[in-house]
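Q: I have 259 residues here and want to know how they pack in 3D. Can you give me a structure?
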Amino acid sequence: MPEAVISARDLDLTFQTNDGPVHALKGVSLDIKKGDFVSFIGPSGCGKTTFLRCMADLEQPTGGSITVNGGSPSEARQARAYGYVFQAAGLYPWRTIGRNISLPLEIMGYSKDDQAARVARVLELVELSGFEKKFPWQLSGGMQQRASIARALAFDADILLMDEPFGALDEIVRDHLNEQLLQLWARTEKTIAFVTHSIPEAVYLSTKIVVMSPRPGRITDVIDSPLPKDRPLDIRESPEFLEVAHRVRDGLRAGHMDD
């Protein structure tokens, strides 16, 4: 069994606000193994993104523990162990797609030749070769998100943290990007933690689905997917897929009833 790349034990996080404390996470324990594709699903405000931000050292837990690659999230951040893809593409409009992707490489001090080679490689991975001289406004929303994923892959981190990257896109584009992301995952063997509100997306993409309850965010179910790694879109009509989707829906319903 591969060892845990990300490990949380009894993780709590409480935000202090003017209206009193907000309990975002409570007693969250989870192991993510190397090469896993783990989706987090739950209602708005259940702590999915907060958990992802704890992994990325963007939020500090108030209880329990979390490790990334055996060390603290801060150490993982400093070691550039992960790439982060946000809900919005977050591309700078005055930089070309190539220069947006190369931005973290510039900050890290990579040579111009190395930057160019890495940009070309990740553009090919996300099927955007030939678009490096375009500006973000010249690309569709789906293409902008692919460029955002390319930027997160540019420095070749082993872990990819993705916070609802396709949530704002229409269903046809989303389906296409889901297929592309699975192909990308198969080629790169990254460990992926993925936040979504979509049951079909969570079931289609994941080796493991983590169902979370309304605030305070708790894990109500962890489902190991029985689906094969090679997944055409029409697998979503199979009995196995529908059975997992039903279990996810039951877990979400149970979380609400416990509230």
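Q: Anything worth noting?
A: The radius of gyration is 18 Å. Helices lie at 48-55, 73-78, 97-108, 112-125, 141-153, 171-188, 199-205, 239-258.
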